[in-house]
Amino acid sequence: MSLETFGWGPELAQAFSVVVASSPLPLVPGRVVRQHRGLVSVQTAERTLWARTAGKLLHQAPGAESLPTVGDWVAMLMPPGKGEGMLHAVLPRKSLLVRREVGREQGGGQLIAANLDVVLLVAGLDSNFNPRRIERALTLAWSSGATPAVLLTKVDLHDDATSLVQAVEALAPGVPVLALSSWTGEGLDAVRALLPSGKTGALLGSSGVGKSTLVNRLLGEERLATQSVRVEDDKGRHTTTHRELFLLPHGALLIDGPGMRELGLMGDEEEGIEQTFADILELAEGCRFNDCTHQGEPGCAVRAAVKAGTLPEERLSSFEKLQKEKAFQSRQTSPAAQREQRKFEKGRTVMGWESSRAKRRKD
Questions:
Q1: Could you tell me which residues are annotated as the binding site for Zn(2+)?
Q2: Which CATH number is 14's domain given?
């Protein structure tokens, strides 16, 4: 199978030639199509085989973000027989979807997929539907370098899907929002249109929203196991235990993986937040003070919009929560940010002390 089928092109060929020129090894290009624990499966021009990351690449990588993940293009040394290949380099990426590792308050990025053209944010039109979760997912998607789209599944289970579509469109201006049913087939052609031949997409959503069922319908065969949600709490059960890239019949590439309930920020999602909450930032331009924090300052256009009912309080709270989380994560890795925070805390302590002293004098 040709590498062009999997998205290979002139820019990648140029990047690969640079790697080959600096290595004495007979390296070949390939794309990571599956990841399961410590191994990855790589598609080359000749065949698909399992491979491990070379010790030198592991040692020299500045962090987990530099190691191969599904969707990556790599330079690999082929085994002499039917053994495992050895990955010696990851070619430059055009996008990378990553979240903070679950269970860690700081650092520890978990790679989801690389070299994406579109991130398909999947939410079920049942009790799983949560606008705040969609805003968080949009922030990660915009930050990846890919373009997001929202897929609202299980439309056949909801009597008024149109109102929910409009609600998501309101919080994601300019982002395609599709309502679909994998059981009836409604909306599947629109999903295919989001993924033209040769383009790569990834599904992002929690367990039970119908990602595996959607992949099966797009593939035209039952390749992935599926399960119904738990009746007692409407939560999904993990049926997909690894990440895998699928070649769809119409030529597009789609990555699916385990469901994710937690989508922690890494600290560098400034652009993603700006894209997701462009409406709030536009309102903020009308605030009296350039450094307005929207916490009660006079002339705050954002709070005025909340009071007028044109900006939901919940959306502003979501914006503030993500801003604080991003700032916290950024401080963990940036010495400059840590110094600024200490300066801010010191200033706040001094102001509090002076205020307390002034109050005691009045008493």
A1: 287, 292, 294, 300
A2: 2.40.50.140
Beta partners for 244?
A: 34, 256
Q: Is residue 142 part of a domain?
A: yes
Residue 249 lies in a domain: yes
- Residues 285 and 16: their CA atoms lie apart, in Å, by 45
At 314-323, the pLDDT tens digits run 999 999 999 9
Out of 225, 256, 287, pick the residue that ends a domain.
Answer: 256
Structure letter (DSSP) for residue 205: -
> Per the annotation, where are the binding residues?
153-156, 205-213, 287, 292, 294, 300
Contacts (Cβ under 8 Å, ≥6 apart) of 179: 125, 152, 155, 161, 162, 164, 165, 186, 187
Pick the closest to residue 126 from 156, 148, 104 (CA basis): 156
What would the pLDDT profile of 177-234 be if each residue is shown by its tens digit? 999 998 889 999 999 999 999 999 999 988 888 898 999 999 988 776 665 544 444 4
**What's the rounded Cα separation, in Å, for the pair 289 and 337?**
23
Task: Please state the domain count of the chain.
Answer: 3
Cα–Cα distance, 164 to 171 (Å, whole number): 11
Residues 112 and 248 in one domain: yes
- In the structure, what pLDDT confidence band is assigned to residue 129 with cuts at 50, 70 and 90? confident
Query: Does some domain include residue 340?
Result: yes
> Are both 25 and 112 inside the same structural domain?
no
The binding site for GTP consists of: 153-156, 205-213
**Containing domain of residue 223, as a range?**
96-256
User: What whole-number distance in Å separates Cα of residue 120 and Cα of residue 210?
Assistant: 12
Q: Which two tokens stand for residue 52?
A: 């491990």
The CATH number of residue 190's host domain is 3.40.50.300
